[in-house]
Design brief:
The protein has 5 helices and 5 strands, in the order αββαβααββα. It is mainly alpha-helical and 152 residues long. The strands form 2 sheets. It has a 3-stranded antiparallel beta sheet. A two-stranded antiparallel ribbon has the order 1-2. It starts with 15 loop residues before the first helix and ends in a 12-residue tail after the last helix.
Length: 152
């Protein structure tokens, strides 16, 4: 069992077949109903919950750990740095330069997950745009039509 909201949950080996059958059943049905322990009347799962359940099962079947975290989850600078894939000192510089909003809890900086995800999405969009520009410049310069051999 996970000890905090950030701890990932992995699929125990003994339950792989059961989860695989559940995933296959849900995919075939197109919807799902919850039935109470005592067999009380079923309730149709909302589409958003049904879709999320399918995603969780798919990821777990792939052997990936899953965490469900509210977007308002507060992260330490170390947790935030790990999620973005940068060092903690680099993340602190991003915070101090106003690239990512943060707040203080006593003497410690805290970052909301939603703000971190927004930064990550913007960073990824900027990277893709830069790569597109570079590819277009190379295309315009005719570099895709040339074979450049290294000097011997």
């Amino acid at each position: 069992m996970a000890t905090s909201t950030l701890d990932p949950v992995t699929l125990p080996h003994a339950q792989e077949e059961q989860v695989s059958e559940l995933h296959e059943l849900l995919q075939k049905q197109g919807s799902a109903r919850l039935v109470g322990k005592g067999g009380e009347p079923a309730m149709l799962l909302p589409d958003a919950i049904y879709g999320m359940l399918l995603q969780i099962l798919d990821l777990m079947q792939q052997g990936k750990a899953v965490s469900i975290v509210p977007v308002t989850q507060e992260l330490t600078t170390q947790q935030a740095a790990e999620l973005v894939g940068v060092s903690r000192p680099f993340l602190v510089k991003l915070l101090e330069n106003g690239k990512i909003p943060y707040h203080s809890a006593g003497t410690h900086r805290r970052v909301y997950l939603k703000d971190l995800l927004e930064y990550k999405q913007q960073r990824d969009e900027d990277r893709h745009a830069a790569l597109d520009r570079m590819a277009q410049e190379a295309q315009d310069a005719g570099l895709y039509d040339k074979v450049i051999l290294p000097d011997e």
